[in-house]
Amino acid sequence: MNAGVKTVNIDVKALGKVAVLMGGRSAEREVSLMSGTGVLAALQSKGVDAHAFDPAERDLGDLKREGFARCFIALHGRFGEDGTVQGALELLGIPYTGPGVMASAVAMDKLMTKRIWIAEGLSTPAWRQVHSAEETRAAFAALGSHMIVKPVREGSTIGLSKVLTLAECDAAYALASGQDPMVMCEQFIAGDEVTIPVLGTGAEARALPVIRIVAPDGNYDYQHKYFTDDTKYLVPCGLPEGEEAAIQALVLKAFRTLDCRGWARADVMIDGRTRKPYLLEINTSPGMTGHSLVPMSARATGLSYEDLCLTLLASAALDNPANGQG
Fold first, then answer.
1. Of the listed 28, 81, 90, 186, which one is catalytic?
2. Is the pLDDT of residue 324 over 80?
3. Is the pLDDT of residue 217 over 70?
4. pLDDT, tens digit, 9 for 90 and up, residues 40-68
5. 132 included as an active-site residue
6. Least confident segment among 7-21, 117-131, 165-179
7. Binding-site annotation: residue ranges for Mg(2+)
8. 318: helix, strand or coil
9. Residues of the domain holding 165
10. From start to end of 82-177, where are the E strands?
């Protein structure tokens, strides 16, 4: 299904001096460097005056002092995808890619995201917040025979475990709490795993084609996401057309409910028995590596990686543009 995305002519000189923020201090630093390197090369190939900028090694104030006009955020995880960098850029008055401060902060917190989606009537798996191994075992009994245990504020499946037996609860809690003191248990939905990128803002936001993920033994972990070629990504996804359209509509509602802008990517599980889709989470600074899914979906609409990067950069904005320079 074509999402209506078209390559547009963009005056690259008008974009000014651009910083590609990459690296950072999160557990996803390695992936961020991969994303940022790809984005930097793509923008430079289009004639953009783009430069690498690692907030773990540079003072963000240098962005203002060195005359950067906008930022492409290729940071992942905490201190990059959670509203902190976005807030700093708001204060500096430098437009940036992706959702703003509040949307980024909320989306990074899986519990808060779920609470908002539930309040808006959007489907997401049942969950429990837990504070100990004992509470994790209680959640296992409450949620059913299979569940996912994961840090509330982490990404890329870091610290995540699929728990099949009561005996696995203690180790799963220990792994997740080692990444974040806030831990959640989530009902496991058996079925098709899909992901859906969104490009644009407000009424102009459009869901790109659905990607169906087929990982070895259903284990779509950190290694299979970024460092192997064993996972299959199906675009077209092979779902019935009506089902794909319904999932895209659900994801657009999820995107707009959190007041996202620019771009994001939502992860969804489809119950294999009922075919009901369940929202898992939304990523507000998706990966842009050679294995990443937003470029893959965009390519299915005819939008190249380079043009995708340029389109995203052109969408850079501020929550409070009156206070900025862009």
1. 28
2. no
3. no
4. 999 999 999 999 999 999 999 999 999 99
5. no
6. 7-21
7. 267, 281, 283
8. coil
9. 127-187
10. 127-130, 147-151, 161-163
Q: Pick the catalytic residue: 292, 297, 306, 315? A: 292
Catalytic residue among 156, 161, 285, 315: 156
CATH number at residue 231: 3.30.470.20
Q: For 263, what's the count of Cα atoms within 13 Å in the CB-facing half-sphere? A: 27
Q: How far is CA 118 from CA 46, 124, 228, 278, in A?
A: 42, 7, 35, 11
Annotated binding site: 267, 281, 283
Residue 286 in any domain: the answer is yes
Other beta carbons within 10 angstroms of residue 109's beta carbon come to 18
Verify whether residue 292 is a known catalytic residue.
yes
What is the distance between the alpha carbons of residues 247 and 245, in angstroms, rounded to a whole number?
A: 5
* Catalytic residue status for 32: no
Judge if 194 and 183 occupy the same domain.
no
Residue 113 predicted with pLDDT over 70: yes
Residue 289 Cα to chain centre, angstroms: 13
